[in-house]
């Protein structure tokens, strides 16, 4: 179902905003031994996956924070929503993405695009805008080194896992984008120190698997705040 040699996702859509972070605030959402990168940046996104090898068509929203671990620049995800149970289980159990179930709106009509994510009656992320020019040499969205935390509510210690998905560009376009980040007690995105939007793009990509390897332990005490965010 998730063979490493094939494209697991075909023509996946990521509506992405590069956002400044307040380093004093955002550092508290990065568990040791990971460190917030300098400059402090994050990518917030909504996504739509029309074709997968595991038979699901679903939506997603999430956050990638730029981090450093053992001199390697990587991305760490502290929060993510999906509307498909298979994607949730595989993402959490295998790759350490902190996925929870949510509700989504995704509209793409010509050059107009809109994506939003809600959970338990709260709109947490809203993105809408107009597509612009194609980007000849775009940055990757998912095909970067990852440092996620694989954890459970049992006795097993949380671990940093490292992997890098394969990414093949279909098309990337710049977007004139309006972004609203909300929050709630269970999903406190409004407390993560987000600042102004620096850039925005619509990525269309094919994605393949990357083998997740445990490479470091995480202090259970340092991870306690993040465990609540993952399970609440």
Structure description:
The structure is a single chain. The protein has 232 residues and is mainly beta. It has a single domain (7-231), classed as Beta Barrel (Acetoacetate decarboxylase-like). It has helices at residues 23-26, 85-95, 220-231; strands at 7-21, 35-36, 41-49, 51-52, 58-69, 72-82, 99-101, 103-109, 112-119, 122-134, 146-150, 159-163, 166-181, 194-208, 213-217. The strands form two sheets. Strands 1, 2, 3, 4, 5, 6, 7, 8, 9, 10, 13 and 14 form a twelve-stranded mixed β-sheet that branches. Strands 11-12-15 form a three-stranded antiparallel β-sheet, covered by helices on one side. It starts with 6 loop residues before the first strand and ends with a helix.
Listing every helix as H and every strand as E from the N terminus to the C terminus, the arrangement reads EHEEEEEHEEEEEEEEEH
The overall pLDDT, averaged over residues, is: 93
Q: Tell me the count of domains.
A: 1
The low-confidence parts are: none
Our Rg estimate from Cα atoms comes to: 17 Å
* C-alpha termini separation: 29 Å
Q: Please identify, by name, the CATH architecture.
A: Beta Barrel
Task: Count the DSSP helices.
Answer: 3
């Amino acid at each position: 179902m998730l063979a490493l040699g094939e494209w697991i996702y075909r023509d996946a859509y990521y509506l992405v905003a590069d956002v400044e972070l307040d380093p004093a605030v955002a550092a508290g959402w990065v568990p040791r031994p990971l460190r917030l990168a300098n400059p402090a940046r994050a990518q917030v996104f909504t996504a739509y996956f029309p074709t997968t090898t595991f038979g699901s068509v679903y939506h997603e929203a999430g956050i990638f924070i730029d981090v450093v671990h053992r001199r390697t620049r990587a991305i760490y995800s502290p929060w993510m929503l999906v509307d498909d149970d298979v994607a949730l289980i595989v993402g959490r159990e295998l790759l350490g993405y902190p996925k929870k179930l949510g509700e989504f709106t995704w509209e793409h009509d010509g050059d107009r695009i809109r994506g939003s994510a809600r959970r338990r009656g709260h709109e947490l992320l809203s993105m809408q805008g107009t597509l612009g020019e194609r980007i000849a040499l775009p940055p990757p969205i998912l095909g970067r080194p990852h440092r996620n935390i694989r954890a459970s509510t049992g006795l097993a210690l949380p671990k940093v896992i490292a992997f890098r998905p394969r990414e093949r560009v279909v098309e990337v376009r710049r977007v004139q984008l309006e972004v609203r980040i909300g929050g709630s007690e269970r999903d406190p995105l409004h407390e993560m120190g987000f600042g102004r939007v620096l850039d925005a793009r619509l990525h269309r990509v094919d994605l393949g698997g990357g083998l997740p390897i445990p490479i470091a332990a995480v202090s259970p005490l340092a991870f306690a705040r993040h465990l609540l965010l993952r399970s609440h």
